[in-house]
Design brief:
The structure holds 2 protein chains of 2 kinds. By secondary structure, chain A is α+β, with helices and mostly antiparallel strands. Chain A contains 15 helices and 8 strands. Chain B is α+β, with helices and mostly antiparallel strands. The chains are: A alpha+beta, B alpha+beta.
Chain lengths: 402, 372
């Protein structure tokens, strides 16, 4: 099989050493600490910017991109090693909207001008993207979306609303699905647009999660003008692109790393625990649950490896693989965060918002700061990117032929 | 989703196809009822399929294939619900011989040749409780005493490999003819239709029967290969159960529509599929890690077996549930797959015991196990 033979074991071990050395040098204690305090899905603010800049300078910011577009030219196996090592070193999790969603879509479907303009700016971090997919009346039933774009000369005029828009408060660009044919239904008549967030007529309303994070927002579009040149793919055929992107979102490799980060912090917490807290870490039921999560993580990573190997060998990856990965990864992340919260015992009830926002120290040991917020935040994992129920329905069709 | 080479895919197809053509459910049940060994299938394994030499080196007359090749064969045997003792004779014994020092392995060369030729089948009494058996020096020979309460595949074996504690506290490995003097067998029927053996031993043996006096590492390697092999067998069983269940649900009509149109059943079957995929991933990983360091190998084998055990319960229970009444009967193959899964769990440890084994190994390793 091509992938296994592509790099010799010696090459892979050398690469692993190179990655470890880089992480050792670049991942400063304060970056690690800030990453450990991250309860939301992605790193944000200064932490995200600094880590992005470090990876960009090294040429490792977009491991999955083809070399011609600025990727490092790694084999899929090397990408897995990189991800595994980043997770085990406790590196920040960078936002996926530009690097893992918009970038691949532009590489696959963008015009030369779009690629030339946007891709370097995604890599450098100059452009920071958010995703305009869901609407209040179009959640799981995404193709029922109604946000309208009407052609007016060289522009579209966009009116409507988008919701659950992660990091819209930071983003300077948005990719969004709009209905360009008002007579159309479902997937037909949808187009894929790119718009600057400072366009006149865009309003951002923050939505606080039950975990206390401000991650997501509702957006209102009021006669927002978007140049036709910023449409990706043909008019009314954006649904194909929307689904293409979802495959990246669902099959995205970062999910395993997310779980690995939680597990790594559990071991660190155990090492620093004393007294009654330490006893909780020695509880056989905790040890069993931790082992189960670790085993599931191995199964997830190996499944990811199989997906990668198949696509490298030219076999279609398809909906079944992406949905399997999304379903398992989301459920597993929830199990991991639940475990990390449960082992806190009474400390789990403390509102650690001040510590999480850098406004003060953690109440109790440092490791007690994030788990409860992270657990609460993780409830969204089985909802966004297609709920677990949607994934099961896709699997029934795509994997079982029902 | 595959990391198998073309030749490995072909090997799996070859064995799978042979079983479909020559070993349907009725033929299997009839063979088990007859208690008729050696079955025609075993000689076909040797001659037509040539799979009995898979893990043995070419110098030993084998094919010198790797763990992934054994995996695809085990998966095909699982899917075909084959009751033949490939696991103990080839997978377990092969790993045992592979882990021996060259001189020791050479001493077992004639038995290896017999296995490859289909003339010998091996039962393994290598359970962790080797302390139940003791080997002591008597004159220029040995005395072997003790027992092994439940030896899988003993009914079909020509030879048995026994571990026993030596005076030095190591585990010796002894090979004997199944019917050798001093071995007292009782026949123990298992719920999967095969026969295990209860073994009482009080035997005087010569040096030639002792493969090694320090076999602990080889026993461990063999055990991990068995766990990886069983994970592959379970992968095959789950694939069969899922296929059978989806077929049934697509044909069976209630309330005027097929069962497969009910979302609650669609989602349950989707979960069965996911369990099957994760089990396959872990079986592959366990096979690949058979060549890793002993600690990593051990942890991964336990993890795979734990995951497969958990998946086995979920898929088998769901298969019966979705079939409804007919799923609970002896006449449907579903129950027989179910009982094979339960037999594997009982004999080789279920999910709980292997989770614990994994946790102990993981603590020893001190770091997570990388997939690549």
């Amino acid at each position: 099989m091509a992938v296994i033979n592509q790099n010799t074991q010696k090459e892979l071990e050398e690469f692993r050493g190179e990655v470890r050395a880089f992480l050792n040098d670049s991942l400063t204690p304060d970056l690690r600490q800030a990453a450990a305090a991250q309860a939301g899905v992605f790193s944000e603010g200064d932490v995200a910017r600094r880590w992005h800049a470090i990876l960009y300078a090294k040429g490792w910011i977009a491991p999955a991109w083809p070399k011609e577009y600025g990727g490092p030219g790694w084999s899929p196996v090397k990408r897995m090693i990189f991800e595994h090592e980043c997770a085990n070193a406790g590196a920040p999790t960078l936002p996926a909207m530009g690097l893992q969603m918009c970038g691949p879509v532009l590489i696959g479907h963008g015009t030369q001008e779009q690629k030339d303009f946007f891709l370097p700016r995604i890599l450098s971090g100059e452009h920071f993207w958010c995703q305009g997919y869901s609407e209040p009346q179009a959640g799981s039933d995404l193709s029922a979306l109604r946000c309208a774009a009407v052609r007016d000369g060289d522009d579209y005029v966009v009116n409507g609303t988008k919701i659950w828009t992660t990091h819209a408060q930071y983003a300077n660009w948005i990719f969004l699905l709009v209905r360009t044919d008002p007579q159309s239904r479902r997937g037909a008549g949808i187009s894929f647009l790119l718009a600057p967030m400072d366009s006149a007529g865009i309003t951002v309303r923050p939505i606080l999660s039950m975990s206390g994070e401000h991650e997501v927002n509702q957006l209102f579009f009021d006669d927002v003008r978007v140049p036709v040149a910023h449409r990706v793919g043909p008019e009314n055929e954006g649904w194909t692109i929307a689904k293409y992107l979802l495959e990246f979102e669902r099959g995205g490799g970062a999910a395993g790393g997310r779980v690995a980060r939680v597990m790594r912090r559990l071991y660190e917490a155990e090492a620093g625990a004393t007294g009654a807290q330490a006893a909780l870490f020695r509880d056989p039921e905790f040890i069993k649950r931790r082992a189960e999560v670790e085993i599931e993580l191995m199964a997830l990573e190996m499944t990811q490896y199989r997906i990668i190997a198949a696509s490298e060998a030219g076999q279609p990856v398809g909906d079944a693989a992406a949905s399997t990965f999304k379903l398992v990864a989301a459920t597993l992340f929830q199990k991991a965060t639940e475990l990390a919260m449960d082992v806190l015992g009474p400390l789990g009830a403390i509102d650690q918002r001040a510590a999480l926002e850098g406004r003060g120290p953690a109440i109790g040991p440092d490791f007690a700061a994030a788990p409860t917020a992270r657990y609460l935040n993780s409830r969204a994992m089985t909802i966004f990117g297609g709920t677990s129920e949607i994934q099961r329905s896709i699997l029934a069709k795509a994997a079982l032929g029902i | 989703m595959s990391i198998l080479s073309e030749s490995q895919e072909m090997l799996g197809d070859l064995v799978g196809r042979y079983l479909i053509d020559n070993y349907d459910f009725e033929a299997r049940q009839a063979a088990l009822k007859r208690d008729g060994w050696p079955s025609g299938l075993w000689s076909a394994f040797a001659d037509e399929l040539g799979i009995l030499g898979a893990p043995f080196t070419e110098a030993q007359g084998g094919l010198g294939l790797g763990p992934l090749d054994s995996m695809v064969v085990m998966e095909a045997l699982g899917r075909g619900l084959a009751a033949e003792p490939f696991l103990s004779s080839v997978v377990g014994f092969g790993a045992l011989v592979g882990a021996l020092e060259t001189a020791e392995a050479d001493a077992s060369a004639s038995l290896v040749a017999e296995v490859i030729g289909g003339r010998a089948r091996i039962a393994l009494a290598l359970a962790d409780g080797a302390g139940d058996r003791i080997l002591t020096r008597v004159g220029d020979g040995w005395r072997l005493e003790g027992g092994a309460p439940l030896v899988p595949s003993a009914g079909d074996a020509t030879h048995v490999v026994i571990s026993a504690k030596t005076a030095e506290g190591n585990s010796a490995l002894i090979v004997m003819n199944r019917d050798a003097e001093g071995l007292h067998w009782s026949k123990i029927p298992l719920i999967d239709g095969t026969n295990a053996g209860g073994l009482e031993i009080d035997a005087v043996i010569d040096d030639a029967s002792v493969i090694t006096l320090v076999g602990d590492a080889a026993i461990q390697a063999s055990h991990d290969a068995l766990l990886a092999g069983l994970s592959a067998e379970i992968t095959g069983i789950l694939a069969a159960l899922i296929e059978i269940t989806v077929d049934f649900a697509s044909q069976r009509t209630q309330f005027g529509k097929t069962l497969s149109t009910f979302q609650v059943l669609q989602h349950r079957m989707a979960d069965m599929y996911v369990e099957g995929e994760l089990t396959r991933s872990m079986a592959l990983l366990a096979a690949l890690k058979l060549d890793a360091s002993p600690a990593e190998r051990r942890a991964t084998a336990a993890a795979a077996k734990a995951r497969a055990g958990k998946a086995g319960r979920m898929v088998a229970q769901s298969a019966v549930q979705i079939h409804g009444g007919i799923g609970t009967t002896d006449e449907l193959i579903v129950g027989h797959y179910f009982k094979r899964l339960l037999t594997i769990e009982a004999l080789y440890g279920g999910a709980d015991s292997h989770i614990k084994r994994y946790a102990d190994q993981r603590a020893e390793l001190g770091q997570p196990i990388p997939v690549v």
